[in-house]
Amino acid sequence: MTAKSIATTILRIIPAVILLQTLFYKFSAAPESVYIFETLGLEPWGRIGLGVLELITAILILVPKTTWLGALLGIGIMGGAIFSHFAILGVVVQNDGGTLFLLAWITFVCCVVLVWISRHQNPLLKK
């Protein structure tokens, strides 16, 4: 395995794990998750729908042929999360020390890099 393929694999695993680990909180209606989506006016359907979309996104990121699509979805989802933190929620949500905000940024950056790395697989960019 080359250094580039190892780095790409790590870049795929990081956002997928972050997206997958938050599913428990969304699908179990954890108080923090319910608070966030109530504050955004999207509880419960936004929480559940976003959870399903994040599950699909994580799977797409992990499959090498669809990494580009999952990463694009990840950019959109995390862009929305980051905007929500800045505009409505604040960086710190329920005394989390900014953890959710940081995880959103980590996922966003990994997805941006993955889109760039997998640009040759993206049919939207092929001529």
Please characterize this protein's 3D structure:
With 127 residues, the chain is mainly alpha-helical. The protein has one domain (3-119). It has helices at 3-27, 31-39, 45-62, 67-89, 99-117. It is elongated. The two termini are 30 Å apart. The mean pLDDT is 95.
Using the CA coordinates, give the radius of gyration.
Answer: 15 Å
**Count of individual beta strands:** 0
The largest sheet, given as strand count, sense and whether it forms a barrel, is: none
Helicity level: over 70%
The number of helical runs is 5
Amount of beta strand: under 5%
Give the low-confidence spans.
Answer: none
SS-based class: mainly alpha
Silhouette: elongated
The SSE order reads HHHHH
> Into how many domains do the coordinates divide?
1
Main location: membrane
Keywords: Membrane, Transmembrane, Transmembrane helix
Membrane topology: Multi-pass membrane protein
Subcellular location: Membrane
Helix and strand arrangement:
Elements: H1 3-27, H2 31-39, H3 45-62, H4 67-89, H5 99-117
Helix pairs in contact: 1-3, 1-5, 3-4, 4-5
Describe the structure concisely for a colleague.
The chain is mainly alpha-helical. Helix content is 74%, strand content 0%.
Notable characteristics:
single chain; 127 residues; mainly alpha; 5 helices; elongated; DoxX; transmembrane helix; membrane
